[in-house]
Amino acid sequence: MADALAEVPADERVAVVDPRFVGHLHSLRLALTDPRFPAAAVPGAVTAQPEARAALKRAATAVPAGPGTRYRVDVLADALAEGMAAEDAAPQSVELGSLVATVPLTPAERAAAEEAVAAVDDEAVRLRTAVKARDGFFTTFFISPYSRYLARWCARRGLTPNQVTTASLLTALIAAGCAATGSRGGFIAAGLLLIFSFVLDCTDGQLARYSLQYSTMGAWLDATFDRAKEYAYYAGLALGAARGGDDVWALALGAMVLQTCRHVVDFSFNEANHDATGNTSPTAALSDRLDSVGWTVWVRRMIVLPIGERWAMIAVLTACTTPRIVFYALLVGCALAACYTTAGRVLRSLTRRARRTDRAAAALADLADSGPLAELFARGGRGGAYTAPVMAFLGTACLLTWVIFQEEPMTWTAVVIAVIYALFSGQAVARPLKGPLDWLVPPLFRAGEYVAILVVAARSGVDQALPAAFGLVAAVAYHHYDTVYRIRVGAGAPPRWLVRAAGGHEGRTLVVVLLAALLHSTGFTIALTALAVVLALLVLAESIRFWVSSGAPAVHDEGEPA
C-alpha cells in the first residue's frame, strides 16, 4: 500500500476506498472531495490532500500484513484512518446524518446495508443539506424552498459558486443603477432586482455546499460582496433622491455607519468569547431556554433584522415609497436591532465568568485597527478590568461631542480634540484586551471614526462633501470587514505595514479633522475624495493579493445569517 501511494504525484489528493463499500454516493463525495480538510474519512474510505500524505503513508507502512491480520486487511481504510489519528493527524470525521457508509463483511450485513441505502433518497439529503441549518425567517420560508433547486440547476450546468456570486453582485449593481434614475419605474425595477440578487446570494452558498466547491476566491467574494451590494444600493438610492431634489446622502451614510457598527459588535463579541473557558452566564441560560420554545426563535432572529429581512424591507419600500422613507425605516430598524443585541451581549459579559485566551485578545487588538499614534500613546498604560472600554468610550464621546454640538467645530481646537481621541485610543489598547467588556473597544472606535467623518462632512457646508465622505467610509469599512474575514478563517489580520500605512482609525480621524480645519471650499471635497481613492487602492490591492494567493485557506464563509 505504501508503495502504491508513493506512485501518486506528491501534489495530488489520494484516496483509499474498500472495494466492498456499500453506501450513498454522496457519502463518498463528502469524504473524498471536500477541499476544506487535509484528510477526511467515512467507514470504508479515507482521503488525504498533499499536506496529509506523509501521515497517510506512515499509517500505511504501519498496517500489519500476513497471517493473523485478515480483519485489519478487510477494513484497510479504517485502519489507515486510525493510524493517522494516532499520529495527531486524524482525518475529519464526516457527519453523514441519514446517509449510509459501511463495509459489510457478511452477506447478511451487505443485504441490510443495501436495504438501508434504498430507504434514504441520496439526492433529497443532498438538497436539504445544501441549505444552512440556521437562517433567518424570510430566507428559510421565502427563498430557500426554491433557491436550492436553482443551486442544483447551476451545478448540473457546470456553473461555479464564484460565478453565481459575481452574478449576484452585478444584479445588485444594476439595481443600484435603476434606483439612481430617480423614477418610479426605476425604483420598482430596483426593488425587484435587489430581491433577485438576494436569491442568487443564497444560491451561491447552497451551490458550494451542494457540489462541495469551496475555494479561496469564493471565501473572499462571498465575504465582501454582500456589503458591496448593500452599500452600492444605498448610494444608488441617494443619487435617485438627488435627481428628485431630495438630499439624503447624510441618511445613506448614517445607514452604512450604523450597519457596519452593528457587524463590528457581532464580530468583536464572537471573537472575544468563542474559545473562552468558563463561558456560561444566567443570561445565556435564559437564551437557551427560550430556544426550546419554537416561536421565540423566529421572533428573536427577526428582531435583529438580518440580511434577508433587511433586504426585503428595503426592496418593498423602494418600490412603494421614497428613498428618504427607506432610510428612515432602515435607521430605525437597525438602531432597535443594535440596542437589542448589544444590551444582551453586555448583560452576558457582565454575568459570566469567562477566561479569555491570548488568541481572543490578539483578535480584538487587530479589530481595533490602531495606527502609529495609538501605538505611541499606548506605552506605559495600566488599568483594571474595565479600563479599555472606559478609555475608548471617553475618547469617542469627547470627539463626537465636540464635532456634533460645537457651533464652529471645524477649527484648530477640533484638531486638538482629535489628538486627545488618539491619546485615549492608545490607552485603551495599552494592555491585552481580556476584560469582560473589552470587546466593546473595536465598535466604539468604529463609531468614533465613522460618525466623526459623517458629521464633519455634513457640517462643513461644502458641496458634495457628503458623497465624498460616503466613499471614504466605504473604503475604510472594506478594510475593517477584510480584517474580520481573515481572522475568521484563521489567517490572521492584515499585515502591520498596511494598518500603519492606512493610518489606523485615530490617524484617519485626525487627518479628516485637519483637512476640515484647513480647507473650507471645494478643496475639502477633493481632499476627501483623494483620501478615499488612495485608501481604497491600498486596501484592495493587499486584500486581492491575499485572497487569491495559495496561502489563503479554502473555505466558504457564510457571513451573517441570511
From TrEMBL:
Coiled coil: none annotated. It holds the Pfam family CDP-OH_P_transf. Keywords: Membrane, Transferase, Transmembrane, Transmembrane helix. Residues 358-562 form the DUF5941 domain. The chain crosses the membrane at residues 325-347, 385-405, 411-430, 510-540. It comes from the Bacteria. One of its GO terms (molecular function) is transferase activity. InterPro entries: CDP-OH_P_trans, CDP-OH_PTrfase_TM_dom, CDP_ALCOHOL_P_TRANSF_CS, DUF5941. Belongs to the CDP-alcohol phosphatidyltransferase class-I family. This is Bifunctional IPC transferase and DIPP synthase. The gene is spsI3.
